[in-house]
From TrEMBL:
Signal peptide: none annotated. It catalyses: 2 GTP = 3',3'-c-di-GMP + 2 diphosphate. Its cofactor is Mg(2+). This is diguanylate cyclase. The chain holds residues 97 to 412 of 415 of the full protein. The modification 4-aspartylphosphate is found at D77. It comes from Shewanella fidelis. One of its GO terms (biological process) is cell adhesion involved in single-species biofilm formation. One of its GO terms (cellular component) is plasma membrane.
Length: 316
């Protein structure tokens, strides 16, 4: 009743609810050698619905992080046996950036330089024990909000707005200078360029919105067929690439040809009814010391052949 009359309260409540929903899926690791301190922090975090995991020193914290790559926040004490808070942070930051895992340092030590040293070593924030509950919550929430913001920005920069698969920028960044490394590490690398056949006709006959619906569903099927192991990206209007790490061109061809057939046999449901589409594909394999443009050019030659030979084909 009060919420209805007070706009501020209503918005505040809505924000709070949204946060609590988010928190439910956030795993937090609390590293502290004091059981009392750990249980206290756990209870504060659980009030806000976080999933809490505990570690009693730096070494077991590292092990827990390795076993739980989805931990988003580490709250760590400074003085701990075996490996202290600084040692822990330095080790963690060799693997994970501030954006991948947030760290908040904690200490009851009176040394005033601790907070600066924590942050210089890679912590996102620091809290002096004992602290007021409200400050603890503010720091945790602000740190996680910043992480969410970075994730959102990353997605806006790297995902295609329409189809939600990776975009052109992501694809070229991924493969620009690292092709040789990727190919050697995975023993081979193949690349496919896919272009929907007569796509312009769909726009002309049914409108641009239906064209968009087709693109979204086409991308979803690509993602569903390939994304578990491979990289799917939209690099042009109705042009997509798939990077096949670890597959030679024959194996990639087999997967692509079954995708092609499946697409031909399964019409796409749109707001203007079921539409049949087909795709033409060029696929090629990386040879040492070439760059992504050369690789893509060769895939494009295959694609051109597929179009020339009547479309709805995969060509090497
Ligand atoms: P082909 O079989 O030779 O590939 O013929 P096509 O009609 O598919 O090829 P063309 O390159 O002539 O046309 C591609 C069309 O894709 C033209 C463009 O308007 C359309 N297009 C590009 N981006 C989008 C988009 O985001 N949404 C929609 N609806 N259409 C798009
Ligand atoms: Mg301690
Ligand atoms: Mg095209
Ligand atoms: Mg086309």
């Amino acid at each position: 009743y009060v919420f209805k009359e007070n706009r501020f309260s209503y918005e505040y409540t809505a924000k709070l609810v949204k946060r609590l929903c988010r928190n439910q899926s956030v795993k937090v690791l609390v590293a502290d050698d004091s059981v009392v301190s750990r249980k206290f922090i756990r209870s504060l975090l659980e009030q806000h619905l976080f999933q809490v995991i505990e570690a009693d020193d730096g070494v077991s914290a590292l092990e827990t992080l390795n076993d739980n790559p989805d931990i988003k926040l580490l709250i760590t004490d400074y003085n701990m046996p075996r490996l202290d808070g600084f040692g822990l942070i330095i080790k963690v930051r060799e693997q994970l950036s501030r954006e991948e895992l947030a760290i908040i340092g904690l200490s009851s030590d009176s040394d005033e330089s601790l907070s600066a040293r924590f942050i210089k070593n890679g912590a996102n924030d620091f809290l002096q024990k004992p602290f007021v509950h409200e400050e603890f919550h503010c720091r945790v929430l602000t740190t996680l909000d910043a992480l969410d913001m970075v994730t959102k920005l990353w997605e806006q920069a790297n995902l295609d707005y329409l189809t939600n698969v990776y975009n052109r920028r992501y694809f070229f960044n991924l493969y620009e200078d690292k092709l040789t490394n990727i190919a050697l590490k995975n023993s081979s690398l193949s690349l496919a360029l896919l272009d929907i056949d007569y796509f312009k006709k769909i726009n002309d006959n049914y409108g641009h919105d239906v064209g968009d619906e087709v693109l979204i569903e086409f991308a979803r099927r690509l993602q569903q067929s390939f994304s578990q192991h491979f990289t799917v990206a939209r690099i042009g209007g109705e042009e997509f690439v798939v990077g096949f790490k670890g597959l030679n061109v024959e194996k990639a061809y087999t997967l692509l040809d079954s995708f092609r057939m499946q697409l031909e046999l399964t019409p796409i449901a749109t707001s203007k009814g079921l539409l049949n589409i087909t795709v033409s594909t060029g696929v090629t394999e990386f040879t040492l010391d070439e760059n992504v443009d050369a690789l893509l050019n060769r895939a494009d030659i295959g694609l051109y052949q597929a179009k020339q030979n009547g479309r709805n084909l995969v060509c090497i």
